[in-house]
């Protein structure tokens, strides 16, 4: 009688393992979907910003109301459909607010840059955040590989070609602003992965975009404009930007939670394709042959991440700060 029971227990084990594998595969598939949707939404945003600028709306008004409306939409959606996700632990909420505030500062530089350079060039420079993600993860791990150094050098060279190889005069200030925005975006990606160990992706999205809105709205109050002067076309562009922003942040954090910051960031390459195609069709923007060379070099730098060894999937930032930055008695 003992033998059949042993066989039964042996048979029951594989289905449990199979269920776990299927669950992991399903999570990866959903993460892939979110990771692909996020760059599509993000690729549309610079085009809408250009439309708003063409309608006579200034930078801070675009940034403030785009982010403020996006935050309001997320709060409304959460209150109606997912009220239970609003509450979370204090460290998780504070961490989400910090990540969002950093990205809010970067968004001001991002949209100011777009008043000086083409949307396609701006998005190519901005995609360098993919390299910075690896650099920041390695810095936290106290190791920098030669491959990371080479990739960083390639990125710098690519940005030079993209900037210097344009048809008009090089706008280094505009490119520098976009580069700063890319760095802040990479910081948010790396921070978000650790934060979402303790908080669902929609919850982090809510608080991160709330902090973004607070930062840019405060900046707008330093140089307010008469909103009555904003045209209907301007408000339409801002409203669409708000909707796309909310969707891009939600899908971004869902992707990071399922796949990690590096894999999600890699899918962000398609963001550039979306922007270049739409900018060419609707804005008449074109890259020179030298800028295409720079774009190819940048793509090589990004794709070399597959050969990076020993990059941590995420960094326990609380422990890192505790051990390395906080003062000890």
Unreliable runs, pLDDT <50, ≥5 residues?
Answer: 1-13
Strand content: under 5%
Shape: globular
Q: What characterizes the major β-sheet?
A: none
Give the count of helical stretches.
13
Structural class: mainly alpha
N- to C-terminal distance: 65 Å
> What count of structural domains?
1
> How much helicity do the residues have?
over 70%
Tell me the radius of gyration. 22 Å
Order of helices and strands: HHHHHHHHHHHHH
Mean pLDDT: 81
Number of strands: 0
What does this structure look like?
Helix content is 78%, strand content 0%. Mean pLDDT is 81; it is low at 1-13. The protein has helices spanning 2-54, 59-81, 90-113, 119-126, 129-140, 146-164, 172-195, 201-222, 232-259, 261-267, 269-283, 289-303, 317-324. It has one domain (34-324). α6 packs antiparallel against α12 (289-303). The chain has 329 residues and is mainly alpha-helical. The radius of gyration is 22 Å and the shape is globular. The chain starts with a helix and ends in a 5-residue tail after the last helix. The longest helix has 53 residues, at 2-54.
Layout of SSEs?
Layout: H1 2-54, H2 59-81, H3 90-113, H4 119-126, H5 129-140, H6 146-164, H7 172-195, H8 201-222, H9 232-259, H10 261-267, H11 269-283, H12 289-303, H13 317-324
Please give a quick description of this structure.
The protein is an all-alpha fold and 329 residues long. It is built from 13 helices and no strands.
């Amino acid at each position: 009688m003992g033998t059949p029971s042993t066989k039964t227990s042996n048979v029951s084990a594989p289905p449990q393992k199979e269920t776990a594998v299927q669950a992991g595969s399903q999570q990866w598939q959903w993460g892939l979907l979110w990771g692909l949707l996020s760059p599509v939404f993000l690729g549309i945003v610079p085009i809408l910003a250009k439309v708003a600028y063409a309608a006579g709306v200034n930078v801070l008004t675009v940034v403030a109301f785009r982010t403020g409306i996006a935050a309001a939409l997320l709060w409304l959606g959460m209150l109606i459909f997912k009220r239970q996700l609003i509450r979370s632990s204090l460290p998780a909420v504070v961490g989400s607010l910090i990540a969002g505030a950093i990205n809010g500062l970067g968004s001001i530089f991002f949209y100011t840059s777009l008043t000086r350079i083409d949307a396609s060039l701006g998005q190519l420079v901005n995609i360098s955040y993919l390299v910075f993600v690896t650099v920041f993860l390695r810095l936290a791990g106290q190791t920098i590989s030669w491959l990371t150094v080479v990739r960083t050098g390639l990125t710098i060279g690519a940005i030079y070609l993209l900037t210097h190889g344009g048809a008009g005069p090089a706008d280094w200030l505009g490119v520098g602003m976009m580069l700063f925005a890319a760095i802040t975006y990479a910081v948010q990606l790396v921070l978000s992965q650790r934060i979402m160990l303790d908080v669902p992706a929609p919850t982090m999205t809510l608080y991160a975009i709330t902090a973004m809105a607070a930062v840019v709205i405060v900046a707008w109050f330093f140089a307010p404009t008469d909103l009555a002067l904003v045209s209907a076309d301007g408000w339409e562009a801002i409203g669409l930007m708000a909707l796309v922003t909310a969707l891009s942040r939600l899908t971004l954090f869902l992707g990071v939670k399922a796949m990690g910051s590096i894999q999600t960031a890699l899918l962000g390459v398609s963001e550039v394709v979306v922007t270049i195609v739409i900018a060419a069709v609707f804005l008449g923007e074109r890259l020179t042959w030298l800028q295409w060379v720079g774009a190819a070099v940048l793509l090589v730098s990004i794709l070399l991440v597959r050969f990076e060894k020993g990059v941590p999937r995420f960094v326990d930032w609380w422990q890192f700060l505790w051990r390395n930055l906080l003062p000890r008695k």
